[in-house]
Specification:
With about 240 residues, this protein is an alpha/beta fold. It is built from nine helices and eight strands. The strands form two sheets. A five-stranded parallel β-sheet has the order 2-3-1-4-8, sandwiched between helices. It has a three-stranded antiparallel β-sheet with strand order 6-5-7. The radius of gyration is 18 Å and the shape is globular. The two termini are about 35 Å apart. It binds adenosine-5'-diphosphate. The site of adenosine-5'-diphosphate has 18 residues, from α2 and α3.
Length: about 240
């Protein structure tokens, strides 16, 4: 039987420590697979931006570098995954699950469907710390950019402005070095056991993400491609579809 890949939902998880490049690689992978990119970090920041009661509760946890309590994240995620595009096409999910209990919740949310594959982006703590120190986000268009050498976030010359739209660049509040330490600890405590759990179930592919972004993208595709093809996804993904 020939499966029309556009009709076979593909559900990919992207995991990795803060600073591993989940957002960048998740966006590219979603574009290549023609599925929505769903980021719990982005969904939570949007909730914070609405500044309602829920947003204020979420903000307290994010600002401290703690995981947001499951009952809040789960509800926000469920609403997104219930939208028609995610149901029919699938998704690349970045930022969830971050713990074994969240993985169990996701399995229940998707039943009877299953996650197709989980990708781990591997970077050392040292490299991730340097990336987060140098990460600034445009207040106008939200584009993140790395500004190595300007890593104290102030007093290092004029703000060069967003490379895309010229907007002002600011550091995300939770990229403050003190908060980053807490986020790394949360990764070790909650997400590392989840990676082992996924690996034991044969669902995990790991990619060396301590390389230039385009090289990582190629490696992600090489790792994900065969699994996706096996469930009716595209057998071949052109390199050009993955970058830019
Ligand atoms: P990173 O992966 O680099 O920490 P994200 O943008 O994915 O960045 O997440 C930012 C913050 O949002 C996290 O530090 C955490 O407070 C919260 N968050 C995101 N996803 C989850 C989740 N699945 N469960 C609980 N909290 C989450």
């Amino acid at each position: 039987m020939t499966v029309d890949w556009a009709r076979a939902p593909i559900r990919v998880l992207v995991l990795g420590r803060p600073g591993s490049g989940k957002g960048t690689q998740g966006t590219r992978l979603a574009r290549a697979l023609e599925v929505p990119h769903v980021s719990t970090g982005d969904l939570l920041r949007a909730e914070i931006g609405r500044d309602g009661r829920l947003g204020r509760r979420v903000a307290e946890h994010v600002a401290a570098g703690r995981l947001v309590p499951d009952e809040l994240v789960d509800a926000i995620l469920r609403n997104r995954l219930d939208e028609p595009d995610a149901i029919t096409a699938g998704f690349v999910l970045d930022g969830y699950p971050r713990s074994i209990p969240q993985a169990v919740t996701l399995e229940r949310m998707l039943l009877p469907a299953q996650v197709t594959v989980a990708v781990e982006l591997m970077v050392s703590e040292r490299e991730a710390r340097q990336r987060l120190r140098a990460r600034f986000v445009c207040v106008e268009c939200g584009q993140p950019q790395g500004l190595r050498g300007r890593d104290d976030g102030a007093g290092s010359g004029p703000d060069p402005g967003c490379a895309r739209c010229g907007g002002e660049l600011r550091r995300r509040a939770d990229d403050d070095p003190g908060v980053v330490a807490r986020r790394f600890a949360e990764f070790t405590h909650s997400t590392k056991p989840l990676l082992d759990w996924l690996d034991r179930r044969g669902r995990l592919v790991s990619v060396d993400a301590e390389r230039p972004p385009d090289d990582v993208t190629r490696a992600v595709l090489a790792a994900v491609g065969p699994v996706v093809a096996a469930v009716g996804g595209p057998a071949f993904l052109a390199e050009s579809e993955l970058t830019a």
